[in-house]
Amino acid sequence: MRFLLIVLVFTLQGFLTPLIAPWPPPDLLLLAALLPLGRRPLWQAVGLAYLLGLAQDVAGGGVPGLHALALAAGVFVTGVVVPGGLELGRAVSDWQLLALLAALAGKWTALLLLLTYTGQPAPLAETLRVGPLEALLTVVGFALLQPLLNRAHRRRERSLYL
Fold it and tell me: Given this model, what pLDDT does residue 83 score?
């Protein structure tokens, strides 16, 4: 079931990228990487984020490890700032938005440092051009997906007690 969810997230991410082409797509892989926080130890969530980012690097043909380290950094920052993560099962709250913004800040800080280290031209300008819009679209995407995620969470919790 979890593998199917990850395949669905990759497919949706790949579908949205050319669909809204001049704009960056929402980072659905970051959302998928944040879901285990609170239910798993932090090191497992960071490891899953690294693997998702590595799969994104391989599938996208980018620099191997760039998105992997960025997603892992975002999940790590969220795990330190808001240990509960996204805490499903209720409406969008301030803690969920704080967790999502911490993850995005950690991810974009890591990307900025990695792009600077690899010698890319104008990494700060590129980060400021893409980062805020991607953050906005990711928060909106999370708000739209929240009812579906809550329903799946309630169904999973109910099946545990049956």
Answer: 74
State the average pLDDT over residues 146-161. 70
Which two three-digit tokens encode residue 96? 């969920």
In which region does residue 25 sit, left (phi positive, over 0), alpha (psi from -120 to 50) or beta (all else)? beta
pLDDT at 5 over 80: no
76-134 per-position pLDDT tens digit: 999 888 876 666 555 556 778 888 889 999 999 999 999 888 888 888 888 888 889 99
Q: What angle do CA 47, 49, 55 make, to 5 degrees?
A: 105
In the predicted structure, residue 149 carries a pLDDT above the cut 80: no
Contact 54, 69 (CB under 8 A): no
CB contact burial 67-105 (16+ within 10 A = b; e otherwise): bbbbbbbbbbbbbeebeebbbbeeeeeeebeebbbbbbb
Helix (H) or strand (E) holding 26: none
Distance CA 50, CA 42 (A): 12
Tokens 């892992």 sit at which residue? 72
Contact 92, 109 (CB under 8 A): no
Tokens 């809204």 belong to which residue? 20
- The Cα 9–Cα 106 span in angstroms is 21
